[in-house]
Amino acid sequence: MSTTATAKSESRPAGLPGLDRQISQAKTVLRQLRDTLEDLEDRRDLARSKQRNAGKPGTEWETVKKELGLQF
Hints:
By secondary structure, the chain is mainly α.
């Protein structure tokens, strides 16, 4: 066993587990914020696409199924 590893674990301040918990919680919040931001960007992209394509004729469902090989 390494004496360096033992020395490091013995020299940890007592409050470190609390700090580790705070860091973990902060990472969780950041992940949630990133996911929310991605969702908002998707909504913005969808709204822009709808606006850009407003009034244009759509593609018939039968044509889409045929192009994607979804004929049942």
